[in-house]
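User: I've been trying to design a sequence by hand for this structure and keep getting stuck. Would you show me what you'd pick, starting by listing the structure so we're on the same page?

Assistant: Good idea, let's start from the same input. This is the structure you sent:
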């Protein structure tokens, strides 16, 4: 695992909520969802409040750093399209099972979504999306 969090000098804030830990940077959020979490529409509301706090008027990318096993109700993805400042979602994982899940998830999300093997590649892509 790479040094975490990356670029600590640029880290704006760290938010710990019931679904996980979120690292806020200029232009992107790195989220680590808690082991065993089950993300449904109800949990999405707490994440939306977090995004509104930091990115209500600024474009950003969400980076999902998949180090834990958890489930996502794929029907939440269309609601993410309503977050106008969300310019993309990056998924970071080297685990084959998580990569297979990603193939299913991207069917439900018509926005910009990509998968990366390293957090640094995802950050580079995120920066290109909001510059």
């Amino acid at each position: 695992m790479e040094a975490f969090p990356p670029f600590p000098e640029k880290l704006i804030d760290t938010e710990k909520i019931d679904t996980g830990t979120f690292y806020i940077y200029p232009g992107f959020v790195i989220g680590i969802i808690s082991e065993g979490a089950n993300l449904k529409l109800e949990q999405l509301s707490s994440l939306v409040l977090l995004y509104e706090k930091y990115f209500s008027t600024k474009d950003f990318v969400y980076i999902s750093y998949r180090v834990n096993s958890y489930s996502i109700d794929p029907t939440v993805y269309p609601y993410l399209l309503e977050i106008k400042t969300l310019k993309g979602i990056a998924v970071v994982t080297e685990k084959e099972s998580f990569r297979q899940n990603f193939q299913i998830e991207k069917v439900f999300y018509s926005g910009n979504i990509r998968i990366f093997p390293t957090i640094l590649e995802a950050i580079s892509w995120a920066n290109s999306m909001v510059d």
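That's my pick for every position. To get oriented when you compare it with your attempt: The first helix runs from residue 41 to 55. The first strand starts at residue 13 and ends at 17.
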